[in-house]
Structure formats: structure tokens, C-alpha cells
Automatic annotation (TrEMBL):
It holds the Pfam family Sigma70_r2. The keyword Cell cycle does not apply. GO terms for molecular function: DNA binding; sigma factor activity. GO terms for biological process: DNA-templated transcription initiation. It comes from the Bacteria. PANTHER family: RNA POLYMERASE ECF-TYPE SIGMA FACTO, RNA POLYMERASE SIGMA FACTOR HI_1459-RELATED. Residues 125-177 form the RNA polymerase sigma factor 70 region 4 type domain. Transmembrane segments: none annotated. This is Sigma-70 family RNA polymerase sigma factor. Belongs to the sigma-70 factor family. ECF subfamily. InterPro entries: RNA_pol_sigma-70-like, RNA_pol_sigma-70_dom, RNA_pol_sigma70_r2, RNA_pol_sigma70_r4_t2, RNA_pol_sigma_r2, RNA_pol_sigma_r3/r4-like, WH-like_DNA-bd_sf. It comes from Sphingomonas changnyeongensis.
Length: 194
């Protein structure tokens, strides 16, 4: 099986059908194929390992309960799981905003590093802070496209958008990210931000 934004194989169709009949081995194979990618997506969205694990577990729980209703040809399992995971992350981010208005904490770096490593770390922190400050949908578009490498058409489908609306959202997100980084003193000569 392929772990990535690819079309669902006939093998995965069969695994989902077997999972729908309660086959735990088939379910385990689906988990093994998609867990790492889902965890990376959730971590980038939430920036919290424990919450990311919870979201991944909930995503797979929904696959387990929804497998009996899965229709062949309804899209890839990976795409469906990524959409469920993304929506669960957005729900958690919205709940967080009601509970905390804290800034993103700085990460301490106890290692002695060269100037280049320090500059790279500063850029990473600035990107993380700027990404965290984006509206949920803009953040999701950036993460799906630049961190998870989903093609625009599939990312748009995951977000329930037409491709043109997604591309417009992505353009607004990149513009906002660029402005935020410029305001923090990064002019683009440091490397790719997203």
C-alpha cells in the first residue's frame, strides 16, 4: 500500500470492506499505512503531540465505525482520513481560542550552534508563529499544500471547496504569511518560509 496522496488501490478498497465486516487485521493494515502521515498533519495543525495523537485515534475510530457504509469509488481512504483529521484539528483550534489567548511559547534551544543554525531556528519560529496566527482555513490550506504536499485539487476537496476558491484562499494565506514574516524582519532572502 502507498502512504501518500495517491488514489485508493483495489487492495485498500478490499481492506475497507473487510474492516466494515469487523476484520481487525484489515483495519490494522489501514492504520499502519496512514497513521504516520495523519500524525504529521495533526501535529503541524495543532503543534501539540498529545493532541495530535488524540486526533489521529479519533480519525481511525471514525474509519472503523464508518467502514460498513463505505462506498467503493468514493475517493481514497488517505484523502478521507486527511479530511476527517483536518476537520478535527480545526475543531480543536476553535475550542482553544475560547480558552486561551496566549502567544505561541518560544522553544528553548540548549544546544550551542553555529550562527546559521540560530538564524534557521529563528526563521522556523517566526514561520510557526505566523502560521499559528493565520485563520483556521488559511492555515489548513498552507499545511495541506506545503507541509503535506497534497495537490491543490485534492486539498480543495478535503476542505470542501472548489479549486478556484481553494487557490484564492491559498493566495491569501501566502500573502498573510509573507506580511507576518516581513513584519518580523524576514525579507525572503533567508529561504523558503512555507
Amino acid at each position: 500500500m502507498v502512504d501518500g496522496p495517491e488514489r485508493q488501490t483495489d487492495d485498500e478498497q478490499a481492506l475497507v470492506a473487510r474492516t466494515g465486516r469487523g476484520d481487525q487485521i484489515a483495519f490494522r493494515l489501514l492504520v499502519d499505512a496512514h497513521a504516520r502521515r495523519l500524525h504529521a498533519l495533526a501535529w503541524r495543525m495543532l503543534m501539540d503531540g498529545t493532541e495530535a495523537e488524540d486526533v489521529v485515534q479519533e480519525s481511525f475510530a471514525r474509519l472503523w465505525t464508518g467502514a460498513p457504509r463505505w462506498r467503493a469509488g468514493s475517493g481514497s481512504v488517505g484523502g478521507w482520513l486527511a479530511r476527517v483529521c483536518t476537520n478535527l484539528c480545526i475543531d480543536r483550534l476553535r475550542r482553544r481560542r475560547f480558552w486561551a489567548d496566549e502567544e505561541v511559547p518560544d522553544m528553548a534551544d540548549d544546544r550551542v550552534a553555529a550562527t546559521e543554525a540560530i538564524d534557521a531556528r529563528r526563521l522556523d519560529q517566526a514561520v510557526a508563529a505566523a502560521l499559528a496566527a493565520l485563520p483556521d482555513r488559511q492555515r489548513t490550506a498552507i499545511v495541506l499544500t506545503y507541509h503535506e504536499h497534497w495537490p491543490n485539487a485534492e486539498a480543495a476537496q478535503m476542505m470542501g471547496l472548489h479549486i478556484k476558491a481553494f487557490e484564492s484562499l491559498l493566495l491569501r494565506a501566502r500573502t498573510a504569511l509573507r506580511r507576518a514574516l516581513t513584519a518580523r524582519g524576514f525579507d525572503g532572502s533567508e529561504g523558503q518560509a512555507a
